[in-house]
Amino acid sequence: MVKKIKIRGIFNRILVLLILCCLMALLVSCDKADDSTSEESVIQSGEVDSPDEFINIGLYIDIKAPKISEISYRIEDNEIAVVSFIYNGLECELRGSCKYKGYDLAKVENTSDGDMLSTSINGYGATYYTLNPGRIVFWSDEHVNYSLYTYVTTLDDVVKEITEYIIFQDYYNSRADVTRQTRDESESYAKQIITIFQNKDMENLSKMISYPQQLGEGQSAANIDEFMNIPPEEIFTDILLKALSEESLNNLRTTEDEKEFIIGTNYKNVHFKKVEDGKFLITKINN
Fold this sequence. Notes:
8 helices; about 35% helix; single chain; 8-stranded antiparallel sheet; alpha+beta; disordered N terminus; 4-stranded antiparallel sheet
């Protein structure tokens, strides 16, 4: 009998230990989940307190006018910023999105007869259409599409007056998915730089440079030919090669204005950035 009690006691202890292990594993997984969600905020559709929250989806829109009332802000489909307001008694809706455009963005039926008025808003080409009922305006900047809709058919001058009070800014590079992709691409490009320097590969390095190039030791190159005429030992210095080790990836960082990436030490390093066509180029070599 005593032996059975002892065995049962040992079994209970093992069971308790197994339960504790499971609980600890669950807590660790929860912590990891919390870390992942805190790293990238999830965009929720619905009412928001201010247009500042639109920056999370890559843009900023608002309207500042003396005749504005009943203004409200919301996000639709996790991708569309909406500002609803009444301008001098006229119900209006301003929208912006990096993903949607045209009537898909405005979410109104296209009842236009096809006639349009070409104009501009803050230097960007815009078109006015007359709907039945309503007026709609479309325009875009580099990454963001915009629309302004008035619920009743209004005169061109009234629509133009409203657009003069509209504020819109492109924050595409502030989107979580864009910053994540840029970070991943920058790490991949930094690895290429390290490999090319360690191999002392002048030819491939010359194709990765933004010209004209002013090097840290006073050398300059206006183009590839001039760069290739620089003695390799002046580019691939021992101290720079040491700074561009595999471990330097752990210190990949950006400049204070966050426009360029830096790989290497504070004194011997390589700067690079993403240019307009989406490619990375080396902007500075501190050799």
